[in-house]
Design a protein that fits this description.
Phosphoribosyl-aminoimidazole Synthetase, Chain A, domain 2; 4-stranded mixed β-sheet; single chain
Length: 356
């Protein structure tokens, strides 16, 4: 397992020693439980390792910090093949390396299900970017993809799994397979977090439960209203194709936007890094109110608004901020409370709710 550049004592002792040049350690932990956050029949062990690492590493980036190390605890049945565990370790190591972090220790135990607990550590290169700093007039911008993991989950739930991809293999070229891949291995833009801090971001969060749900945390912590301009959201061809495909099959269970049921039912039902290929459109489309509720565009937009697990970063910036191209402005901060879409409350849940 890679130790990372700031680790002086890694795996092999009772604890690790990881440097923090800034003097401040940023820490986050996430839990993955088989059957709730992933399924072994849907994802390879390597995929699950990538996803487990990404969930915690994205939280460090969302604070504006640089990832430095992971601690991983694994509980599993005694019948679990050893190869599965080593493939899992490979996925964890690969994603940690992509984020510039090492894996410095952990624990193992026996359990009836596979359970993973991943703790990420980071170093602050600037001030921490909290959820509580958004102010009226700020821009709302996102870096990374939205809705692709939710669409991939919907395809898997409809019984349309894509072929598994070998570690390091070429990404799929089929648009629907790309979405399943995006669900199996999320690819957060880790370096966008410290970049946002340097740009003066006033608040930031990663999109794990859904864009509207997570912006709701920012709105509540900051005491403001966040309005999303749906015409600015990128609803790519792949999302529209997936929605049309699922809607053509009534047994898929996909419901139209505005039905009161989120299209993506879980912020953790499995995991793949977004491969290069069919890109989302740089712009958006017509506003949500102009779309027929039973149209593929409306279903695709609902995935973008409420689907989680892409782990994109969404942040607020002072209105005069000149943003790099990868930060796409999608709304603004206003006086008030809560989250709105095109000035009106969103009908239905804004994302995954863990205990409902």
């Amino acid at each position: 397992m890679p130790a990372g550049p700031l680790t002086s004592v890694g795996i092999g002792d009772d604890a690790a020693v990881v440097g923090a040049p800034s003097g401040s350690v940023v820490a986050a932990v996430d839990l993955l439980i088989e059957g709730r956050h992933f399924r072994r029949d849907w994802s390879a062990a390597y995929d699950i390792g990538v996803k487990a690492a990404a969930r915690s590493l994205a939280d460090i980036a969302a604070m504006g910090a640089v990832n430095t190390a992971l601690l991983v605890a694994l509980a599993a049945p005694g019948t679990l093949p050893a190869r599965w565990a080593t493939d899992l370790a490979d996925g964890l190591a690969a994603e940690a390396a992509r984020a510039g972090a090492g894996i410095v220790g952990g624990d193992t135990a026996r359990a009836d299900l596979v359970i993973l607990s991943v703790t990420a550590l980071g170093d602050l290169t600037n001030r921490p970017v909290l959820r509580s700093g958004a102010r009226p007039g700020d821009l709302v911008a996102v870096a990374g993809s939205l809705g692709r993991s939710a669409a991939g989950l919907a395809l898997l739930q409809a019984g349309r799994p894509a072929p598994a991809r070998a570690p390091g293999g070429d990404p799929p070229s089929d648009p629907l397979a790309e979405l399943v891949a995006a669900h199996r291995r999320p690819a957060p833009p880790y370096d966008a977090g410290p970049e946002a801090a340097l740009l003066g971001a006033t608040a930031m969060i990663d999109v794990s439960d859904g864009l509207l749900a997570d912006l709701g945390h920012v709105a509540e912590a900051s005491g403001v209203q966040v309005d999303v301009d749906s015409s600015r959201l990128a609803v790519g061809r792949a999302l529209r194709a997936a929605a049309a495909s699922l809607m053509a099959n009534p047994s898929s269970g996909t419901r139209a936007a505005g039905s009161g049921t989120p299209v993506s039912p879980d912020s953790g039902a499995d995991g793949t890094r977004r491969p290069p290929g069919l890109a989302d459109a740089p712009g958006g489309g017509p506003p949500a109110a102009a779309l027929p509720a039973d149209s593929p565009q409306a279903v695709a937009l609902e995935w973008v608004l409420t689907g989680g697990e892409d782990h994109a970063l969404v942040a607020t910036f002072p209105p005069s901020t000149a943003l790099p191209a990868r930060w796409r402005v999608i709304g603004e901060v206003r006086e008030g409370a809560g989250v709105t879409v095109d000035g009106a409350p969103h009908q239905g849940p804004g994302g995954w709710q863990h205990f409902r």
